[in-house]
Prior knowledge:
Structural class of chain A: alpha+beta
Number of strands of chain B: 6
Shape of chain A: extended
Largest sheet of chain B: 3 strands, antiparallel
Radius of gyration of chain B: 19 Å
Distance between the termini of chain A: 84 Å
Oligomer: heterodimer
Number of helices of chain A: 10
Distance between the termini of chain B: 38 Å
Structural class of chain B: mainly alpha
Number of strands of chain A: 8
Amino acid sequence: MNTQNPKRDTKPKITERRRFLTIMAQSVGLSALGGLIWTGYVEEAKASPLMLRPPGALPERDFLRMCIKCGQCAEACPYDTLLIAKPGDGRPMGTPYFIPREIPCYMCTDIPCVPVCPTNALDQKSVSSVKDGKEVLDINKAKMGLAIIDAESCIAYWGIQCDACYRACPILGDAISIEYIRNERTGKHAKLVPVVHADHCTGCGLCEHACVTEKAAIFVLPRDVAMGKPGDYYVKGWSEKDQERIKERDINRLQTKTKRSEKSPQDYLNLDEGLFDE
Amino acid sequence: MSRIYKMRYLLLRRFTQVGLLFLYFSANAYGWNILTGTLSSSTLFQTVPLADPFAILQMLSAGAVMGIDVFIGAAIVILFYGIVGGRAFCSWVCPVNMVTDLANWLRRKLLLDKAERKVWVSRNARYWVLVLSLIVSAITGLAAFELVSPITIFNRGVIFGMGMTGGVLFAIFLFDLFGVKNGWCGHICPLGGVYSLIGRFSLIRVRHNQPNCTLCMKCKEVCPESEVLFMIGKESTTVNMGECVNCARCIEVCDDDALGFSIRDFATSKAKGENR
């Protein structure tokens, strides 16, 4: 020890242990910093909901989890419909999508894009139906999106005769039908307007591709974005299919529990509770 | 001719790197069915599945329940690189290697190492990034490194169109040129970290023949992971550290026949009590 200079002794010593702990803390700290930035980026990147996925794609969140970004679906597509998101596209990179106004899905009956998926992010079961006891591919079961009509810009809704989307629809009559409505403006004509039926629409986008307006008046949106949900409170009493829907409902979640409803609803008027408390 | 002989492995590596990119590209462009998919998952001759084990690991961490194909594919890849040297992927297959090698070549030509301010990053940073990518995958439910990996971005860019891919690659080029020497491949890239672990016990290794060595240190100068060549001029043994990329640059630049490919030396490393 240097006794001439007592100040030197008061300096904190950097021991091996302190050095080790500091370096560990630094590494963990820098990793946490990197992790926060990285997590933020990933969360932003996956929050782009307007992606139309290939047939059989799982719901968006599961799809992003499962897609390994190998691009084999896009390579299998004979029409070059499927694109792979690149840097600069503003979509989760490497995942497949399509832009129907440019190239729609032509709904191949052998669905070449689905069986090549190595992770089952494109689920073959969801685009198959049972025929003669065998499971066969059925593109009509695809749910890539749902066509939506902007009646303001659809010229058929103006009263001009146009059925381009109806004619382009591969499941015409079921997915798009033409309905007659009265033309109130002239008072003596009919309008022949297209109407989309969500049960049958696959979201292939052939209608959007065919639409004659400058920017398509009928366009495909992901079903999550395009559709509402009535919930378990409202049921079509006249439809057996709709009653199937609510069979799984959780009855406890449906009932509103208040102080009064704890007792039998028949009795609550007879019980004075709550009426004369004050 | 001797100049070409001096670059024989380099030329071979460029051939496999570009060749594989071309096979991937032609699967999409011309419909060849030799190698379809991308580096994250592909199919060889329409039958053999191949998958990136690190991508699978991230997806498992993100909570994905996948088909059996990708697991078989990952097993094949692990087995292959477990034999030929894990990071042979980095120097013989990975397309980003061409970008970082260019940056590294420029560094040597322009003497940047001597003049630049040093930025220090630990060689172990890649293992931190590896663990971090699994944690971020678990939090976000999305394979985190796959989303930003310049390797597959470059690979997909060649196959499906580049977009802004050039920007990503230029960023890595700048980092390696003006940031850290061998910064991306030798310090940050977690896929390199994974293959380092896979290649820990691989069979094909570089061997140093100490009596021939004249201590010119050309090998250390050219080596992208120079810490693995700690035995140069000291003892005759194989380069056993998993971080060695088996690029064979050291073999090529050696004028004294002191380095060559060989089978891993299990015996000497045990005799010396080393276990790398």
